Amino acid sequence: MEYRRFGSMIIARLDKGEEILEQLRAISLAEQVKLAQVSALGALDEFTAGVFDTGTKQFFPNTFHGAYEIVSLTGTVTTMDGAYYSHLHMSAGDREGRVFGGHLSRARISATCEMVIQIIEGRVDRAFDGETGLNLFKFD
Question: Which of 15, 1, 70, 7 is nearest to 36 (CA)?
């Protein structure tokens, strides 16, 4: 992984074998990012994305192996109890043009990933919401 910061923007190149969430965390901690919007594209050979069922409050992950292109990756970096917290969703397409996605749990790069992190001034924390079972934005 290599990245450069340009004011409030970070442009990163993730490399083959690296995991997206791990690298986003490393960059965010190194640059002391507390609030940001994240987007990316690239190629994967393995990822896990799923859906959270608010009725059962369970997460249903799906793991995919093979050649995939990131169609869309978007999300946020915030904090929870003052510590780093990320929330990303991703969709990725296969050779036949089928697209799969959801809440991102893991994604391993097969060639490269181009990531843009837009740092936002301020801070938004998160708190667990018992009704939804999710960690929601908490505005002070």
Answer: 7
Task: Write down the CATH number for the domain with range 2-138.
Answer: 3.30.1330.80
Give the residues across from 100 on adjacent strands: 92
Q: Where are the domains of the chain?
A: 2-138
- Specify burial of residue 109 (Cβ count, 10 A radius: 0-12, 13-18, 19+): buried
Q: Give the position of tokens 């959270």.
A: 52
State the pTM of this model.
0.96
Query: Is residue 15 within 8 Å of residue 23, measured between CB atoms?
Result: no
| Other Cβ atoms within 10 Å of 113 Cβ, number | 26
User: Tens digit of pLDDT for each residue in 36-60?
Assistant: 999 999 999 999 999 999 899 999 9
H/E element holding 26?
helix 20-30
CA 133 to chain centre: 19
- DSSP letter for each residue of 26-69: HHHHHTT-SSEEEEEEEEEEEEEEEEEETTTTEEEEEEEEEEEE
How far, CA to CA in Å, does 136 sit from each of 76, 79, 86, 131? 12, 11, 12, 11
